[in-house]
Amino acid sequence: MPPLRGSLGPTWAARKRARTEELSENDSSSDSSCAPGAARMVESEKLTPAFPFQVDWRRVLCQSFSLNHQENDQAILESLQNITDRLEAADRSLYDASIMDASADLNYQTMHRIRCAEQSTTELCLNEPLPVWNADGLIHLRGSRVVTNLELHLERNKGTAFLVYRDYKCCESRGPETVQRQPSTISADAVPSLLVNESVSIVSETLSLALDELLSIRVGSTLHPGFNPLMEFSAPYVWWFCQRDRIQSGIQSLAPAHLPHILLFQDYLEESLGQEYQTVDKLLEEGRLSAKYLPYLYIPGEMQLSKMGKDDPQFYRAFKATSWLQYSNMGASPSRLVVSGSSWSYNGFFQQNTEEWAFYCKSPRDETFNIDDLAVFPLRLAGPEVAEALQHRGEMFWECRLPKYICYHNDSALRAQSPQDARYMIDYNTYKDMHPSPPAQVAPRDDLGPEATGPNAPLPDSDFLLCLPCTIPGYHMLKKEWFTLYVSRMTPVQWNVDAFERLVVDDKKKKLIQALVTTQIAAEESTDLMSGKGNGLFILLHGGPGTGKTLTAESVAEIAERPLYRVTCGDVGTKAEEVERYLETVLLLGKTWGCVVLLDEADVFLMQRSVEDFKRNALVSVFLRVLEYYDGILVLTSNRVGTFDAAFKSRIQLSLHYPPLTKENRLQIWKNFIEHVEGLTNSRTASLGIRSREIKDKLPELAKKALNGREIRNAVSTARQLAMFGNEAMGYRHLETVISEMEKFDEYATELKGGLSDDVIARQCQEY
């Protein structure tokens, strides 16, 4: 810890003695018998020459400086500068001596202020009070050298720069149990237990100016209290403690008139709190503290952390302290502590809010504990990894001020994306539109302004990012609901560009799909003659179940790097009014977020209209009308197009048929799924392993099984679960068991259908 005391250079006594001798010489030299008028006359005669005359200034200067009159100009100039420096030094010495004279009697006094609860009185005394028993068996403090008139006392002690008040409360309790009652008095050791506060009140205006100069100008701080005379500020003077290094540097440049006052105040701090400051320094280095030293921990302007009830950085909230530590229930156990601080909230606009952050300290007053066990503690003591995590979280939140498609991890420690991780759309403006709040009396504040939050706005400073919220609402793209998400679990979406390449579809179809999707699919202005009509891309995928239609739509979203909004007929409903309202909402979100909208199992909307079924006709008409004005990518899948309404032909740019899988198709699908299982790293299957060589040797045999893509996926998934249940590696035996049961069901279903397969029945019904 830096020393509390600075250096004055020459001792005060030596400087004062030199000043006294100088004054004595002046007094002796001023003794003269000449009258003042005569002295002025003689001086006038010496200085007033007769006119006209000429002065050889070179000769005069050489004589004055005891130089040869032939000296060059440089020597004369150096002598003149030397004389000037000596005169300035003499002036400074005289000024310092006068300051020493004025500061010779500078001091501070300690006042003991006793507040008696029984007598409702306050008493000032110069000596430390003595404890005595009162009639009720309570400790009473009796003072001596009582000061009845403080103003008169200060008038008689003009050298007092400041007063130190030590406040006591007596007659409130019986005191420590260790105190043994005596006939009239008790041990003086009981007095400290009744001390409740220590504070300083400035008396000298010079000290007030000195502290202002030191803290406000030299140190450039705003953490200190007001230094007006007679105002009190309480120990332990944390504002001095937390700035000691800068204060020591500032003291060196103080005005000479202010220096003695500051050094006197520093002497008081060293005497009263020097040992405590050293103890706190040592504890802070160890990351520990005790309850009685908590005020040293919370400094206005420093970043603080609130655990929000959970000991995990993803839940922490950071704020910038705007006050020192406050006790809201002084003396209670546990102590309720409060730190005021500012943080940022977001409701479509960034708003800075100041609030009280309350917490409790349950540790005994003198018992040390780890600082990071507190519910609120400084960020600087949390470790660099916590600050880094909050910085990254703030950067992600800042990116989400604009619509952003993200991946959400169930485990905050899991950073690699997996199939179980859901994708969400973050869009606060849309969230507000879908959850309107009551009309506000006052317009919402925008403390940053539109320019600072625009798409090209630079990244704000670290303090702002750290103080952003830890949660934000997000729209689950599968469940179609809004959820509150922890920002620390969010990462940008990593697009699965290999999904389209691994798609088991005819290469010509893949090339055609990719060409349509990757080219410009939404012109800035519609090419339709009617303004307002859509310019979207509509693709129809039709074929039997498990042939890759849905997977194709999902792959389209991946290569387009757009969110996938999947809708089924069950989501839409059956009433025309509800269908229209729902589809308009879906397509509006699809347009707003640039989604690939997948309308899965869209058979009911594509079926040919007839004069008998008015409800179905209404659904088809509504669907046609909504599509007419859609601008995005829409993929429709259907198992039955035998009753395809002719009105859709002109509205769908591309229709692709998906025939039943061939043996070669099934072989490739089996390979894809086995390779996928091999690549799993964050599952129990990975820990148990997979007999991939054994399975791959049997792939040709597996490909002979008449399974579609969805059935192959289900077989692999069920085999994994069967292997995990047996706590063993997945092998061909598990697949064989699952497929055997699936075949039994298929045989029974075929028997019920008269031996006809699903494909044959569909063709007979002209479905596809």
From TrEMBL:
Domain AAA+ ATPase stretches: 535-662
Annotated stretches, region: Disordered: 1-39, 433-455
One Pfam family from the record: AAA_lid_13
Cited SUPFAM superfamilies: P-loop containing nucleoside triphosphate hydrolases
A Gene Ontology molecular function term of the record: ATP hydrolysis activity
Protein's name in the database: ATPase
